[in-house]
Write a structure and sequence with these properties.
Blueprint: H1 9-15, E1 20-23, E2 29-32, H2 34-40, H3 44-47, H4 62-72, E3 76-85, E4 88-100, E5 108-113, H5 114-144, H6 146-159, H7 165-188, E6 200-202, H8 204-216, E7 223-227, E8 235-237, H9 239-257, E9 265-272, E10 276-279, E11 286-288, E12 291-297, H10 325-335, E13 339-344, E14 349-355
Parallel strand pairs: 3-10, 7-9
Antiparallel strand pairs: 1-2, 1-5, 3-4, 4-5, 6-8, 9-12, 10-11, 12-14, 13-14
Helix pairs in contact: 5-10, 6-7, 8-9, 9-10
Amino acid sequence: MMTENLPSLAAVIEALPNPLLVLDSANRICMANAAAEDFFQAGASVLARLGIAELAPFSSPVLQSVEQVRQSGNVVIEYGMGIGTPRFGGERSVDLQTAPVGDGTGHVMILLLRRSMAQKLGQQLSHLGAARSVTAMASMLAHEIKNPLAGIKGAAQLIEPGLSEQDRSMARLIQDEAERIRKLVDQMEVFTDERPLDRSPVNIHVVLDRVKKLVVAENNDIVFLEEYDPSLPFVLGNNDQLVQVFLNLAKNAVDAVRQIDGRREIMFSSAFRPGVKLQVAGSTERVSLPLEVCVHDNGPGIPDEIQPHIFDPFVTTKRQGRGLGLALVAKVVRDHGGTVECQPRRRGTTFRCLLPMIREEETHLPTTVGSQKL
């Protein structure tokens, strides 16, 4: 590694665009960069006289995250964390990354991510709203469209025999279009199913293996890669619905890599992220989502203008697409208590699902895959 003419560590910290704080073992602020001064609207000398508790709202679990880092020695990521007070810039919701400094003195670093939190929390609420809106629409369509649609198709079938050949083709066209609309409504009716999931312990790697076999059978010219954590705990979920989620994501990845020349790659990956938590919409509960399952592709990526709405119904980049596949993915992942994100890569796209792990009290079965061969 080159070390000549490198800026000092202090200069690097000051240049960081995101607020950074370092706490001592007593949770006093012993370092704050320029972005932190701007965020809290207070100079470093003022911040240095404060404890982190004085910068967090009364209900904020910031201190719990700090103590968790000290005890575990791991990085903890919290989404949608409230920080700031009326005296120090006002309360705002941020993503908060907390990590041990590693010098054995109990120092902890806190990095605040302003833009990321707005996107993640806003996306989750919009995904939830999108799923609810398409549910209401599907319910309305089922009641108000399918019955008259059946009447239109039946009438076209009845009058067809008595028509001229030219008019018969028009009658058949009416029937075909009525059938096409019926199939679309049938697809949307999936969103109206709000029954509790039939859950059981699911090995997510078995799910991915099944999806891979289904996709490879029709796409043997695409390279499929795997990067799994073999000790990943089980998910308490519905096996068939999880297969549908990752099958939809895999088919989207196939469509993406079909647009490029050269080597076409799709990777399935899994990892255990014990520090990831997300606040449940409409609740103060923070849910741990340690199971990360990703589908990566090296396609051309998703246009910037589409990406914020990619999980909304009827939004698609495909010429013949209906825009319901990713909306269904968002609904099913939400029903499992998780979240799904679309992340651009330098080359391609990653769809990242975060899911809760099964709790020991929920089943008597073992909670790890171990070295099980898939």
